[in-house]
Automatic annotation (TrEMBL):
Protein name in the entry: RNA polymerase sigma-70 factor (ECF subfamily)
NCBIfam families the UniProt entry points to: sigma70-ECF
Pfam hit, one: Sigma70_r4_2
Domain RNA polymerase sigma factor 70 region 4 type, residue spans: 110-161
RNA polymerase sigma-70 region domain mapped to chain residues: 11-72
Organism taxonomic ancestry: Bacteria, Pseudomonadati, Bacteroidota, Bacteroidia, Marinilabiliales
Amino acid sequence: MKKEELFNKIVAENSDRIRRICAYYNPNVHDQQDMCQEVLVNIWKSLDNFRGESAVSTWIYRIAVNTSLQYTGKAYRNMKLLVSADSLHLSNVLDDADLIHKMMEEDQFEILQRELNLLSVVDKALISLMLEELSMKEIAEVIGITESNVKTKIHRIKMQLKNKLKPNHYVSK
């Protein structure tokens, strides 16, 4: 298969994934589009070096996350992780569908958003990949840490979020 055909196939199969990752890291639609274009350029540049040691989707996530972090430049430490209740698998993060339902009823979604944005850059990347339903192994490959480290970090993040989202932590509007 020619490089151009392979590139087109990869983009066709992963365009939604790329757009979601870019949307996690930037609220501005125009910046998201620019980030997506940058991801596509980086995929094209890296295509000859892809050895197939991981799944194509894992490789795409790595490029998309790294490009998103690079795109934000020096502001990456303050980067916002943008989530929406209707399109993400928040139950994976909180392990509690009832809590999510209660949050929506009580209009406390902003608290979750704020807490997510207080996380470190690595923790934000872990959560964004978790929201994409990657396995622990795939997340480890994308981030470049061990699978056991991923499990430990995600467990710690979940516990931190659960503690912050308990009813006694809610603030009425």
